[in-house]
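Support reply, case 0932

Customer input (verbatim):
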Amino acid sequence: MFQSLNGAMKNVFITGGTGYMGRRLVGKLLARGHKVRALVRKGSEAKLPAGVESVIGDALDASSYADRVLPSDTLVQLVGVAHPSPAKGKEFRAIDLPSGLAAVQAAKRAETHLVYVSVGHPAPMMKDYIAVRSQVEQAIRDAGLNATVLRPWYVLGPGHRWPYALIPFYKLCELLPSTRQGARRLGLVTLPQMIAALVRAVENPAQGVRVVEVPEIRQAV
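Our regenerated output:
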């Protein structure tokens, strides 16, 4: 479990701050008294809520923003393809991979804690998505970063509800010894659980690489 830092204020740099999880994380961090700076493309500054400092750059190109990460002490990387599916392998390689590797480069240059959202694995039906996220995880380790890697499988929330039909199946699998471990590792988490886990990662920086799997994400709320 995470250890409390007694509410110490953090200075957080976020890529993907206007996205599905990003805008909710930004709001939660501001409400908790943290300073938030968000990377956006020119012309998208208005999409950020009041109180957030915008940084103009390209999430796929570390050179466009790496020297702007400081003075933030944490970089949260949330850029990725919306609604991942097995059919989006090309998009994962074009967006998720370069944005993840750019965040690694930027965090290394700034010597700052990196929070990265990966994915639970193994799961053969999403092999391209897992391959890309695993490649970024390896880059994090190779760079020698202090990093928190969160591995949700699917985040339930507005517009992301179809897996609710699978909940009885998951419950059954978690009861059976032969399928319990896989069902927990690839279980469903809710959007509030995911945002709470991200906030905890920000407020409790890792020493080395800390991996947060589904059971721990579920405990964040």
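We compared this against your earlier run and they match. Two observations from our side: The first strand starts at residue 11 and ends at 15. The beta strands are 11-15, 35-40, 53-56, 74-77, 113-117, 147-150, 154-156, 188-190, 209-212. Please reopen the case if you see a mismatch on your end.
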